[in-house]
Amino acid sequence: MPTKQEHQAFMKTEGDINLTEARSEWWTAQIDEAARTYLQEDEDVFLHQTLSTPCLNVLSSCEGIYVEDSQGRRIMDFHGNNVHQLGFGHPAVIEAVKQQLDQLSFCTRRYTNLPAIELANKLVALTEGALQRVLFAPGATSAIGMALKLARAVTGKYKTLSMWGAFHGASLDAISVGGEGAFRRGLGPLLPGAEHVIPFNSYRCVFGCQDEAHSLCLKPIEYVLEQDGEIGAVVIETIRNTDVQIPPVAYYKKLRELCDRYGALLIVDETATAFGRTGKMFAYQHYGIEPDMMVLGKGLGGGVFPMAALLVKEELNKAQQMSIGHYTHEKSPVGAAAGLATIRVIEEENLLEHAGRMADLMAQRLKSMMETYPLIGDIRQIGLLVAVELVTDRVSKEPAVQEAERVMYSCLGRGLNFKVSKGNVLTLSPPLIITEDQLNEALDILEKSIAELA
């Protein structure tokens, strides 16, 4: 087993962790005795795992863009595990779930139900018919597993190509195609044939790309597809969610062409980025391509119900002889009701347009901050998904890991929650329903916390 210091050094490449001195100091200053009791009970009963146990705090309620802790403090949540496009507890989603519970709370195997059929048809329509077949699952990790099985069945190839640093879920098959060390390290042999390459990174491009298309970043993908010859699928997060990597259009145009040339399916994982997060209903729609499969999850259930989906092209409907999913809650009428309500709210409340306006405001404020504070080395934004990368020096781009942690805890103390990725990247994902006043308040908190270090 690694030492505590070795573990912390390793984990700072993955995200904010719960074993540092800064966490202990914040916990001592911010948490009252009653909350400490509950946190100790939590620590005593749940399996310990990095990034989550011990927990930071105890939540008692959530509404809109806010979570509230057991001490009554309201905190704007720009993390939300990416389920909160509609914020928390949206009345339309809650009401849809309540009505469905009264009518049909579960769909027994061998039967279907109208909400599931309606949601499947709606998702197909949102792709404008590019993806015409659907399977539901209780979580996106399971949907990734379904995609991998289907890819093997229709191509006859068991190998995949994916990216180091990517996250596709926590099950054994999902971590095999994923590339985050926190989920893979120390587990021995994983899924055979899961090949990986260095991912696209606009700020820290290891290939030294000089062109806007970052054409050199595609060379490893092209090389593996050509040399191996047995890759059945390329699995990729359309937009890398944690540290927000946004490839140019040319990157995906070329990737689509490479998959077609070498007979590999293109599977896009939009678990964290679909349903308006990037300004489009689906992130791949920014790129003018059609994937062969798409995985959805998280926000599909409106932040209320766990719900995921796999969407595929019509020509991939060739595996009736096998059980691709066959999950107990595969066609959950309650989950489907939550999904339908979520999409209906996004459309009826024009949240894509509203989020676009809020994204413009956010971009202006962050640009001003970057001009003022050299601590900010880079800002990457698409819609309401933003990375603020902190560095000790803009020339060397040395990650400002300690500073990022201090900013995070300072913001938490002022009422703003967000994720820290790769040790030094502040990842901001506000709900699409956020108002201009709320967004300005959150950005004021962020600026004050950064200014303290300047």
Automatic annotation (TrEMBL):
The keyword Transferase applies. InterPro entries: Aminotrans_3 (IPR005814), PyrdxlP-dep_Trfase (IPR015424), PyrdxlP-dep_Trfase_major (IPR015421), PyrdxlP-dep_Trfase_small (IPR015422). It comes from the Bacteria. SUPFAM superfamilies: PLP-dependent transferases. GO terms for molecular function: transaminase activity. Keywords: Aminotransferase, Pyridoxal phosphate, Transferase. Gene3D superfamilies: Aspartate Aminotransferase, domain 1 (3.90.1150.10), Type I PLP-dependent aspartate aminotransferase-like (Major domain) (3.40.640.10). The keyword Cell membrane does not apply. It holds the Pfam family Aminotran_3. Belongs to the class-III pyridoxal-phosphate-dependent aminotransferase family. This is Aspartate aminotransferase family protein.
